[in-house]
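Good day; I would like, with your permission, to put a structural problem before you. The record follows directly beneath this note:
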Amino acid sequence: MTPLVAAHRPVPMRAPVPRAVRVSMALSTSVLVGVLTSFGQAVPALAVVANSAGPWFVAAVALCALVGIRAGRSGLVAAAVLGVASLELMHVGYWAASNLRGYPDVLSVTNPWVLLGLPAGILAGAVAAGLRGTDGRWRAAALGVTAAILVGEGVRAVLRVADDATTTAWIAQIVSGVVVLVVATLTARTRAARIVASGTGVVGAIGVFAAYLVLGG
C-alpha cells in the first residue's frame, strides 16, 4: 500500500498594508483621539488623561510609528510632517466634539495649544522615527524624550494645579515616565546609549517643567 502523505499547502502571505492606507488610518485616528478627549473630560476617572498633553504626545508617536517611517533625512522630514498633522487633527477633533456637545471652543492659529502642536508634532515624528531606527542611541533618545514629557508635565501639575482628586493620576503619569526611562536605560546595548537615554530623560524633564512655568506657571 502507498502510505498516505498529508499535503502541505503553502500558507498565503499577507500583502503588506500600503503606506498611504496607514497614513490615512493614522490621520483619521488622530481626529478620533481629539473627539474622545472632549468626551473624556466629562469622566472623572479620565479627567487628568484628557486634560494633559503627555497622552496626546504619546498617541502622536504611536500613530507615526504605525505608519512605519524610519530614521534618515527623508524619513525624519516625513515623520515630522505626519507628527504635526496628527497633533493638529487632534485639535480639530477636540474642537468639533466640544462644540457639538455645547461647550464653545475656538480653533485658531493664535491658540497656544495649536501653536505648540508644531514643535511638539515635529518632536513626536522624530521620536517615532528614532524608535524604528537601527541606531541604539536614536532609540534611547526617543524613549528619553517621551519619558521627559510625561515626567516634566506631571511634576509641574503636582506642584501647581493638582488637587486631592487629581494628584494620584498625575503621580501615575510621573511613574509612567520614570518606567519608560528605566526601560530605555536597561535595554540600551551600549554605554553611550545609556548615557543618551538618562541624559535626555533628566534634562528633558527639567526643560519641559521650565517651559510650562514660562508658558503659564
